[in-house]
Amino acid sequence: MQGYQAQAHLPAVSGRQVIGWKIAATSRNGQAHINVSGPLAGRLLSGQVFESGATVPSAGNRMRVAEPEFAFTMGQDLLPQTTPFSLPEVMAAVATLHPAIEIPDSRLAPFTEAGEAQLLADNACARHFVLGPPAPESWRQLDLSTHAVEAQVHQGANVRYSRTGSGAWVLGDPRIALTWLANQLSSLSITLEKGHVVTTGTCMVPLELVPADSAKADFGELGQVSMHFSV
């Protein structure tokens, strides 16, 4: 709780607005990597969100990874309530689904040993975020838990490596992760607001980057998203 209380001061301290939320550690591997027992929520702040194809700053980023993610934009407010939100309730409040890439970072060294409270105060490693175009509305009929994602990292014209993943990485299903976030915010008396973006956690092993790399994630019929890591 103290970690979330500290995090709540970040918008005022940074002079940025909250435009959405990120979820960290939505896989067992991710939780083990940073030594936490469950997911963590962090704020997405204005000035740190980019459109697909953008160049994202590499300077000062120590984690140097890209994380392909399923992101949702909200079409309705979800106000705090005394009973848990159900998955259908949360999904009914969603406007659109997007392919996305998060480029996280932490001020803590080593962040893997910082502990849950410190990581939450550090905004759950939120740094930069790339939002792809909205997916076709047919996404609502898909099983996101089995939906495959393919990613490549390029250096110039050369493909350095490829990686695959799926929605199963994200608490078993990105929709489950979004529902977790809605209930976590409700427990903190925070509204998940209309227009906010929620990115639900990496759907594969994070993509290691070096400056001048480009990363592209292909979500099949849901679309593609890409970014360039600056020199």
Order of helices and strands: HHEHEEEEHEHEEEHEEEE
Q: What is the SS-derived class?
A: alpha+beta
Query: Any idea what the radius of gyration is?
Result: 16 Å
What level of helicity do the residues show?
Answer: 10-25%
Overall tally of structural domains = 1
Measured between the Cα atoms of the first and last residue, the distance is 38 Å
CATH class: Alpha Beta
Unreliable stretches: none
Strand tally is 13
Percent of sequence in beta strands = 25-35%
Question: With helices defined by DSSP (H or I, 4 residues minimum), what is the helix count?
Answer: 6
| CATH fold description | Fumarylacetoacetate hydrolase, domain 2
Give a quick account of the main beta sheet: strands, pairing sense, barrel closure. 8 strands, mixed
The outline comes out as globular
Average pLDDT: 96
Second rung of CATH, namely the architecture:
Alpha-Beta Complex
Write out the CATH superfamily name: Fumarylacetoacetase-like, C-terminal domain
Chart the SSEs and their pairings.
Elements: H1 2-7, H2 10-14, E1 18-24, H3 28-33, E2 40-45, E3 49-51, E4 55-56, E5 65-74, H4 87-92, E6 94-103, H5 116-121, E7 128-131, E8 148-155, E9 158-166, H6 174-187, E10 197-202, E11 207-208, E12 213-218, E13 224-229
Parallel strand pairs: 1-10, 3-7, 4-13
Antiparallel strand pairs: 1-2, 5-6, 5-10, 5-11, 6-7, 8-9, 8-12, 12-13
Describe the structure.
- The radius of gyration is 16 Å and the shape is globular.
- The strands form two sheets. Strands 1, 2, 3, 5, 6, 7, 10 and 11 form an eight-stranded mixed beta sheet that branches.
- It is built from six helices and 13 strands.
- Helix content is 19%, strand content 34%.
- The protein has one domain (2-229): Fumarylacetoacetase-like, C-terminal domain (Fumarylacetoacetate hydrolase, domain 2, Alpha-Beta Complex).
- The termini are far apart.
- It has helices spanning 2-7, 10-14, 28-33, 87-92, 116-121, 174-187; strands spanning 18-24, 40-45, 49-51, 55-56, 65-74, 94-103, 128-131, 148-155, 158-166, 197-202, 207-208, 213-218, 224-229.
- By secondary structure, it is an alpha+beta fold.
